[in-house]
Design goal:
It is a single chain. It contains 9 helices and 10 strands. The two termini are 18 Å apart. Helix 1 links the parallel strand 1 and strand 2. It is of the alpha/beta class and 276 residues long. The strands form 2 sheets. The chain has a 5-stranded parallel β-sheet, with helices on one face. Strands 7-6-8-9-10 form a 5-stranded parallel β-sheet, sandwiched between helices.
Length: 276
Amino acid sequence: VAFTDFWKAFDPDTEWLVRVLRTRLDFEITRQPAEADLLLASCFGNDHLQFDCTRVFVCWENQAWPRSRFDWAFSGDYVASPRHHRLPLWVVHLDLHPEHTIDHPEDVLAAKSRFAAMVVSSPHGAVRNRLHELLDAYKPVASGGRYKNNVGGPVDDKMAFISTAKFTFACEGSSHPGYTTEKLIHGLTADTVPIYWGNPRVGEEFNSRRFINFHDFRTERAFIDRIIEVDRNDALYLDMLREPWFRDGVLPRPADKKLLLDQFERIVAWTGTPVA
């Protein structure tokens, strides 16, 4: 198996996906195109074009599966194809930060020292930036990233930083059905109430009573008013902290590793002609 076109720090020997695959599949990693029986590639380059074997697209960005260049795909999209498996980025981070219940929400609230916090470094994302401005006009949002930083510089420990706040500004940089990154999971792990915009179908998997979902409101003003209402009503806030993370308290299908491994077994057994 070969890996290419991933992010700069990608190391196949330590990555989550490889560790999961090794729980069932036995394979060697190669960096030579001529030696590869299977290629896993992402969206950060075009080196995958050097490989003549079966190509698998693995992407956690908001990018569609390029079917003319990849035989199979794993992404956050909803795609009606047996060769596509939905694997949004939040699944990876759930493995790092498993769901937990809050036994004493009153103690959690008492320990909060900030209204809201965010760790955003990219200045791109017009909707996210506008929602941040609207929220910041109500009360200051502590920004620990490079964007709008107001805490003396980028923070070293994101989770420790956002844990100090009642709310996490967990909006995505862009909106697309199925595109849910780590931001929501991080806000939940930090025992905050996440403020979310991004995937319009997020409520199909996550419990919208546990976070404030922009996509449940008709206007930006109604969304901001709900945040203000929860901020000013401790009983509402505590009720939200008590809720399970996922809709109906059920772990969503994309987080089922058995289904992921079943799909990889189908890929390994595939005898079709790879794309040129």
